Amino acid sequence: MITIDGKQIKLQIWDTAGQESFRSITRSYYRGAAGALLVYDITRRDTFNHLTTWLEDARQHSNSNMVIMLIGNKSDLESRREVKKEEGEAFAREHGLIFMETSAKTASNVEEAFINTAKEIYEKIQEGVFDINNEANGIKIGPQHAATNSTLAGGQGGQQAGGGCC
Amino acid sequence: MNFFRGVMGGQSAGTQPSGVETIQKLCDRVASSTLLEDRRDAVRALKSLSKKYRMEVGTQAMEHLIHILQSDQSDSEILGYALDTLYNIICNEEEEEQDESEDDGQRRQEDDVGVQFADRFIQDQKNVTLLLSVLEEFDFHVRWPGVKLLTALLKCQCAQVQGVVLISPMGVSRLMDLLADSREVIRNDGLLLLQQLTKGNAAIQKIVAFENAFERLLDIITEEGTSDGGIVVEDCLLLLLNLLKNNSSNQNFFKEGSFIQRMKQWFQLGEESGGGWSAQKVTNLHLMLQLVRVMVSPVNSPGATASCQKSMFQCGLLQQLCTILMATGVPADILTETINTVSEVIRGSQVNQDYFASVNAPSNPPRPAIVVLLMSMVNERQPFVLRCAVLYCFQCFLYKNHKGQAEIVSTLLPSTIDAQSISAGQLLCGGLFSADSLSNWCASVALAHALHDNSNQKEQLLRVQLATSLGKPPISLLQQCTNILSQGDKISRKAESEQVKIKGSKVQTRVGLLMLLCTWISNCPIAVTHFLHNQENVPFLTAQISENLGEDENLVQGLCALLLGICIYYNDNSLENYTKEKLKQLIEKRIGKENFAEKLGFITKHELYSRAFQKPQPTFSTPEHMLFDHEFTKLVKELEGVITKAVHKSSEEDKKEEEVKKTLEQHDSIITQYKELIREQDAQITELKEQVSAMTCQKEQMESTITQQLSQIQQHKDQYNILKLKLGKDGAGSQADVQVNGVQVEELTALRLELEELRTQHTLLQTNLTEKDNLITSLKAEAARSAEGPAPASENTELLKEVEALRVQVQSQQAEISQLQSERRELQRRTQTVSGSVSEAETAKLSELEQRLSAQTAETHRLQEDVRTHSESRAQLEKELAAANSTAAILQAEKAKLQQEVSESKKEQDDLLVLLADQDQKILSLKQRLKALGETIEDEDDLDVRDQSDDDDDDEEEEEDDE
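YS: structure for the whole thing
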C-alpha cells in the first residue's frame, strides 16, 4: 500500500523467475501487467547483456503502454561492479526506460523503485493512457477508489527476479 | 458414394473387416481428396464411426485428422468434426462407467487405448500448440470440442500437456479467457479444463491466479447462487481448491486480495433448513468449508495461518461458522466439517479462541458451545467422525491457550464446581469413567490437552478429588485413573466382575488413560511424587511390562514402560523408596534393561503412531484405530531418547556420571573463579588504561605549558637584552632624553615663533587683500564709469599686475607655510622616535615628556588649524581676486567694443565727407557748366542735392553727438 497524490494505491507485485529456462513461463505474466521492473546484477555483466532479449520479450507480449523500469541491483557491491552506472543509464535512455540502481541488501532505493513505477503508472492513468475499466491492463479501482496495480518484478541470475506487473 | 453403402453394410453385418475397410477408405479419402466437401464428408463419417471402431479409427485416422487441423483451419465445420473424432478416440467415455457389469479388465484396456492415443497425439508438441491455436476460433462447433479434447488429453497425460501449455506463449492466458465466454457450455467446460490444467502444477496455478481467476470464480459462484448453485459452483470450488491447496503464494494473494471477506457470504445460510439440503448443496458447502480450511491449515506457515485467522475473525467468517455450528437441522456431514473448520480457524489464535469460548448455544438456559460439543463427544450415539471433530475442536481450542486450559481445569476444582449446570470438567470426568471406551479415550486425550505444556495446570489437577461412592472417602483423580488401570487389569484376569472387565480390559481405555498419565506427570516432579506415592503403581507397571503378553498388549506395555521411564526421568528423589536409583535397580532386576527398551520401542513401532504423528487432526478409519493423539506422539518422540538413556545408565555409570558432574562442577567453579579473576583483572586493566591515558594527557598539557613558558622566558630574555642594549645606547647620559626633549621644546618655541610670524604675515596679507579689495571696488566703480565712455586700459593693466604680484606673494607664503608644516612634522617625528625608544625605567620621565608632547601636538594642531583657516581665507581672497579680474576683463571687452564702434562711425563719417565733397564738386562742375550754358535752371536740382546733403549732414552731426 502506498500513497501517491493523496490516493491509496495497492501494488500487487509478482516475482517471476529470471532464469533463461523460465522465460516462456514469464511471458504469461506480461499480459495484465501495468508495469515491469527489469532487474540486472551490476556485478555480473552477462545479466546486463541479456537485457535486450528480455526487453524484447516484454515489449512483444505486453501492453504497449506498460511502464518498464530498469534496475541495476546490488549497488552495495561497488568493489565487484562490472557494469557501470553510465552504461545502465545509456541503455535506459536508448530504450525509453526509467533507470535506477538499487541494493536489496541495504534496501537502498528499493522502495523508491516501486514507488517510481507506481507514480509513472499513475501518471499514465491520469493521462488516460490506461483504461482503468479494462482489467487486462492490470489496474482496477478499489472499493474506496483505491487503485490496485499489479506489477511484475523479474530479475536475472536468480538474485532477484525482475518483472513486475502492476 | 459406395463407401457409404459400405459403412451401412459393415454396420448392419456387424463384421469387423468391413468396418476396418471402410475406415481405410475414409482415411484415403481424407488424405487425397482435393475437394473440401469430400474431405468434410469423410471426416464426418469417421466421426460417426469413431465410437464403435475406436481402435481402428484411432490407429489409422489420427495422422490425417491432425493434418486436417493444420490445413483446413479456415473451415470450422471440418475442424469441428475432426476435433470431435479425436475426442472420441482419446476420451475414456464416462458412459462406460454405467456398464459396471462389463469386465473391469476390458475397461482398463479401453483406458489404456485412450492413453496410448493421447501419447501419440502429444508426441509432437506442435499438436498441442496447434490445438491451442484452434481454441482461438470463436465458432462454437470448434471451440467446444477443442476444449473437451484438451481436457481429455490433460486427463490422460497431465504433466506433459501442462508443460506444453506452460511454455506456449499466452497458453494459460488463452485458456483463462474461456471463463469469460458468453456461452455457458464453453465456460463450464473451460472450468473442467482448468481444473485438469491446474492439477499439481504450481507454476500454472500461479499464472491462473495472476489472470484474475479468484475474482472471476467468485463472481461465477455468486452468479450461480453460491451454495444453492449447481454443479458449476462445485466446479468453481474445485478449481479454487486446486489453486490454493499447498500453494502459499496463491494463498497469500487470496488473502491480500481481500477474497476471504467474500467467502463470508457463502455461509450466510437462510432459515430454510426445513430439509432444504440437497446433495449438491451439501457438496458445495463441504468444498467451501474445505477452502476455508486450506487457508488456515496447520501445515501452512504459522505466520500466514495467523493472518488468515485474524482476517476471518475480523470479517465475521468465524462468527458465521459458529452460527452454523449451533444451528439446528444441519446435516451431520456438514456439521462435522464445520467443526473441523472452526477448529482450524481458532487453532493457536488467542483472539479466536477467546471468541470461541464466549459462543453460547441458543438453548435454554444457554450453554457454552464447548460444553454442547463435549456432550456430543462423550455421547455414544453420535457419529464417530463427529466425535473426532469435537475432539479436534477441543484440542485446537486449547492449543497454545493457557487461559483456556486454566478454565477447563478450574471446572474440575472443588472451589469452583457449580453443581447446577453441567461443566466441561464434569463431562470429561464422566467420559473418563464411562463404560464406553471411546468416550474414555476421547476424554483422556481431551484432558491431556488441557495439561499440555502447562505445568501449572498439571499441579492444579492434582487437587481434584472425586466422590466415588457414598460412605467412602473421596479419592484424587490421579488415584482414580491408576485404580481403573490396575483394577481393570486385575479384574480382567480374575474375571470377578464382568462389567468392570469390559471396561478395564479394553485396550483403548487403557491407552487413553496411560497417555493422560504420561502427559500429566511428564515435566512435573510433584505429579511424579504423587504418582509414586501410591504403593501399588510401581509394582503394577513392572508387572505389566515384564509379563509376556499377546500382541494386543504390546502397546499397553510400551506405554507402561514410558510411564515408568517418566517416573525415573522426572524424579526429584523426594520419596525414599522410589528414588531414581531404586527404580533403576528395580527395572534391572524385574524387567531387564534390554527388555525395557524393547517394550518402550513398541510405541513408535506401532503402525498407527506414524499416522497420528503426521497431522494434528484426529482421523481414524475405524473407532478401533483410535489409539494415538498427535500431541502425545510428539511427547513420545521427545521423551523416548532421554528415557532410554536415563534407564540404560547403570548405577556405577550414574555414580561415575555424578563424579564427572561433580568434577565438572568443580571445574565450573574453578572456571568461574578464574573468570571472575579475569573480569577483575580486566576491570583493573581498563582502569589502568584510563589512568595511563589521563596521565599522557596531563603530560602533554605539561609539555605544552613548558614550551610556552620557555618561549616566554626567551621573549623576556630578548626584551631584557634589547633593553640592555638600549640602556647602553642611552647610557651616554641619561639626560640625553631630557636634552632631546629640551631641544624639542626649543624647536617648539621656534615653531611657535615662526607661526607667530606666519600669522603676522597672514594678517599682512589680509590687509593687503583688503587693500586690493578696495582697489577692486574702486576699479569696479571706475569700470562702471568707464561704461559711459572708453575706459583707461592702463589702469586695468596696473591692477592686473598688482594682482599678479599678490598671487606671487600668496604662493610664496604658501610655500613658507608648507615648509613650516613639514618642519613641524619632522619635529613631531623626532619626538615620536624619541618617545618610542624610551625604556621602562624611564616611563615616568617619558610620560611627562609625552604629556608635554601631547600638549605640543595639540598646539601644533591648533596652529595647523589656524593655518588652515588662513589658507581658507586666502583662498577666499583669491576667489574675490579672480572675480575682480573677471569684472575687469568684462570692462575691457566693453571698452574695446566701444572703441570699435567709435572707429566705425568715424569711418562712416569720413565716407560721407568724401561723398559730400564729391557731390559738391559735381554740383560745382554742373553749376559751372550751367553757367557756361547760361541757363538758370539750377533751382530744382540744386535743391534736391542740397536737401540730400542736408540730411546726411544731420545724420553725421547726430552721430558725432552720440560719440
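YS: worth flagging: Residues 155-166 of chain A have pLDDT under 50 and may be disordered.
IM: good catch. Also DSSP finds five helices and seven strands in chain A.
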